[in-house]
Amino acid sequence: MNILEVHDLKKYFATQKAVDGISMNIEQGSIFGLLGPNGAGKTTLLRMITGIFYQDSGEIIFNGKKFNPEKDVEHIGYMPEERGLYKKMNIGEQAVYLARLKGLSKTDANSKIKAWFEKLEMESWWNKKVEDLSKGMSQKLQFVTTVLHNPKLIILDEPFSGLDPVNANLIKDEIFNLAKNGATVIFSTHRMEQVEEICKHIVLVNKGQKILDGKLADIKNDFKENIYSMQADNIPDQVFSTLFEVVKQTPDKLFIKLNENVKPNEVLQHFINEKTSIHAFNEVLPSLNEIFIKLVDGTAASRQFQKK
User: Fold this and answer.
1) Distance (Å, rounded) from C-alpha 147 to C-alpha 151?
2) pLDDT at position 130, please?
3) Do 144 and 151 contact (CB within 8 A), yes or no?
4) 202: which of 102, 252, 286, 304 is 20 to 30 A away, CA to CA?
C-alpha cells in the first residue's frame, strides 16, 4: 500500500516553476530518498506534502484519501532543514510543549520523551536551554520532537547535519527501527553516500522536475558501463586484449571495460592463460553520486525510470 501518492504537483512563484509536474508514489514502511541540488524544488515539494504550502495544481493522496492538511498533519512528523526550536526554553519543557501540540496528553508526552531521551543518551539535558546546545545536540532534540508522537509519515530534511559519526549512527539506527515498526520515512538530502546506506527507492529532482525515479539497485544497474575490477598478483605491466579496454591499472589492481558481447568468463580465462593469480573479480557499479553528477550537470542525457 502507498502511504503517499503525488500526482502532477505544480507550484509556481511569480515566473519561477518551483515544482513543475512532479508525480511519485511512496510505499508504507519504506525509507524513501528525495534528492536534488540546492534550489531543485525539494523543500517546496515537502512543504506541500505537509500542508504548509498549497499546490497550484495536482493532487496529494495520503493514506488512501485526498490529503486534508487540517486532519492529516497530526499523522506527519516534519523535521525541516531550518530548525524551529525556542532558544530560551528548557529542553524538557519545550519537548513536552511540542508533543502537546501534536495531541499527546502531558502524561504520555513526559513518558515518551523520557524514553527517547534515554535511547539517545539525552537524560541529563532536561533542564538545559536550547541556546546552550551544540548544533549536533540540537539536531538530536529536533529529531525527538519530530517522531515522539508516532507519526505515520516522517519527513527528515538533512537529519545528519552537524552530527558526529557516533550520533549519526544512533539516529540512523532509530530511522531503521521506525520503518521496521511501520512508519514511512522521506529522507531529503544532497549527501549521496547517506542515501545509499539507508534508502531502497529514490526520486531525483532538478529545476522543479523529476528526472529519476526507481529502486536504487535498479538505477545502478541501468547506469553501469560494463566495467570490472580485478585484484591479482603478477599482472603484466602492459595489458593488451581485444576483449576489453584498460581503464586504470595499479601494481595489484586492474579496472577494465569489457567490449560489446564479451563475457566476464572470457576475460578471466585470458588472465589465467597469462598465469596471473586472481584474488577478486567484481563488476563496478556507479555510485549514486556519480549518477547524480551526470544527470544534474547534463553530462549524460537525463532519463526517467519508472521502476516498480
Assistant:
1) 6
2) 85
3) no
4) 102
Taking the chain (308 residues) in runs of 10, the rounded mean pLDDT of each run is 95 90 95 89 93 94 94 92 80 91 91 92 88 86 93 93 88 94 91 86 92 92 92 81 88 89 88 80 90 73 39
Last residue of a domain, one of 220, 247, 267: 220
pLDDT at 238: 78
Domain tally, the chain: 2
**Which residues 6+ apart lie within 8 Å of 297 measured at CB?**
none
| Residue recorded with cell 570490472 | 228
Same domain, 163 and 264: no
Q: Which residues of 102-112 are buried (b: 16+ CB within 10 A; e: fewer)?
A: bebeeeebeeb
Cell 585470458, residue located: 270
pLDDT at residue 308 in the model: 36
- Domain coverage including residue 47: 2-220
Identify the pLDDT of residue 304.
40
